[in-house]
Amino acid sequence: MDLDNNLLMSIGVYGSAIGLILIGLYAVLIKKHLTKIVIGLSIIDAGIHLLFIAIGYISGGTAPIFSPAGEKIVANGGIMVDPVPQALVLTAIVIGFAVTAVALSLVIRLYRHHHTARIDQIKSLKW
Amino acid sequence: MVVSPVHYIAVPLMAAFLIPLFAKISKELVRIVPGLVIGYLSVVSVILMTQVVNTGQPIVEVIAGWNPPWGINLVFSAFTGFLATLMTFMAFLIWIYSYRFKKVDDAVAQKYFILFMMLVTGSIGIVLTGDIFNLFVFMEITAIAAYSLTAFYRDRDGAEAGFKYLLIGSFASALMLLAIVLLYTQVGTLNMAEIALRMHTVPQAMKITIFTLFAVGLGIEAEMFPLNGWAPDAYSQSPGPIGVTFAALVVKAGVYSLIRVIFTLFDIHGAYEFLIIMGIITMVIAEISALKQTDLKRMLAYSSIGQMGFVLIAFGIGTNEAVFGALFLMFNHAVIKGLLFMSGSYLVYNTPSKEIKDMAGIGKKLPMVSLFFALGALAIVGLPPFSGFWSKLYILMAAADASFYYLMGTILIVSIIEIVYYFRVMGRLYFGKPQNDVVLQKPTFGGILSMSVLAVVIIAVGFHPDLVSGFIQSAADTLLDKAGYIHSILPNADLTNL
Q1: Cβ(B326)–Cβ(B475) under 8 Å?
Q2: Domain span at residue A7?
Q3: DSSP label at B61?
Q4: Does the beta-carbon distance from A106 to B156 stay under 8 Å?
Q5: Is A54 inside a domain boundary?
Q6: Mean pLDDT, each 10-residue run in order, chain B (498 residues)
Q7: CATH no. for residue A71?
Q8: Considering the domain boundaries, does residue A117 fall inside one?
Q9: ipTM score for this prediction
Q10: Phi, psi for B269 (deg, rounded to 5)
Q11: N or C: which end of chain A has fewer CB within 10 A?
Q12: What's the pTM value of the predicted model, to 2 decimals?
């Protein structure tokens, strides 16, 4: 029963990570509104972050803090989750925040010049 | 004086964020400080490069006392050091060029130089780092600075080019992050040397998936077809000196990371053929697009993409000789395309539009600038007395030695296309009828100085290729020596499984 719960948990977490990536891709590729495209990019990032955190999690592990209390847990046979993905995701979140800020400021500037934020009405935006 | 590779990242990044404080003291300091910083980095480059050449050993800098594979390390080898030195010197010339550049007036100089310093930090960081996630972080630093600089002029086209670049760029970085995540699940490390060491344990299907994600993510920065849609707009909308920075620093860093992933991290059969095929497609399509451009900067941008395709082909041949040619071409492209963009910017400012047809007769109005442009055009198509000739010759010889005769044919045909569109511009410059005699924007002293230095380098290397070929040869040897790279970072590693 315990194993089944873990399995369900994994499927849920990995499934929602992949789901988020796909939703983001859909928004970036199909949506015409610039703000929605930017939101889509953020959703892709969120999906990848969730995937990374899920990979670093070890079921039953505690917080990876290097302290006397942490050492005691490990000495008593406890396990810690992998700290590397968490550190990396924190960095990636900050980067994603910066990119989103730049993107939104560009959207505002485009809106001021074109008086629309729909990509199909900005004619000179040729690929 | 104690110098170390970490100065490349710490000093310019700190200076970038201190610039607003300097601006409070004096407006002029905003312009002077970046020059001092990049000048200092040039000195660091010379010292470190001498050290590497004398000892024959790469300098491995361990950050914060965490030894590899746990901590982040910086590797200044003959290969990465060569690229870092090239980038530093180009950045210094770009600083001289943009010191009194027309459109960088006092109000915006502060923003311009902050972003420029971040661009330099990021590009050099990509080359020096030995950690795959750190490479991603530097790529993002470069990218965010590059998006902002593309949209630097607050006009409509600038914002569009910037947004287009941002859309493609952040999509690329998402793919690259996904590739790093998958790679971490397979090998459990982020250190590039240890990844290379453990790569044989990864299943083939997973390896190809990760490689594809990397190729797409990095191919965008390296201007690989069909991911280079951002480049022509970014080059033509960004300020003149930033076009030079894209060609000399950002794209070099992109090609470097692609090459590092293929040569050191992965050992996939077919990766080299992949490079050759992508290189040919990139080169042919870019050169044909360049031929039909009417806008000078877009033409130069497509030519730049074509040259990067050429570099990818040369790396794809994969022999020592070919890698030597490819690195020589990267050096030449930085110097020559730098000169072309610098002189091209002044040509563009002296025409009512950016169109080539409006540049008729400018050779008589702006003799110096036109001469520099003509010199760059002759050098980049590979005519004998200039440096561009040698790189093309070495790559053709390498292709012949590896029996890639169809490659030689393609390269030569594309060279003819190149000659046609460059000579078309030169013909307009010198033999066209001038529309008026008004010189809108004379080149500044700094502009003339930096262009002269580049012109002297092109001619000097053209007559004496051995001025740089020693460095390039040891860079090529270092790149191909995968075991040596791993050994220099992890001295106790077991190399039998490579």
Answers
A1: no
A2: 2-121
A3: E
A4: no
A5: yes
A6: 82 90 84 90 90 85 78 87 92 88 70 90 92 91 91 81 88 90 88 86 88 88 78 84 89 90 83 87 89 86 89 88 91 91 85 76 81 90 86 89 86 89 86 71 83 91 87 88 84 74
A7: 1.10.287.3510
A8: yes
A9: 0.89
A10: -70, 135
A11: N
A12: 0.91
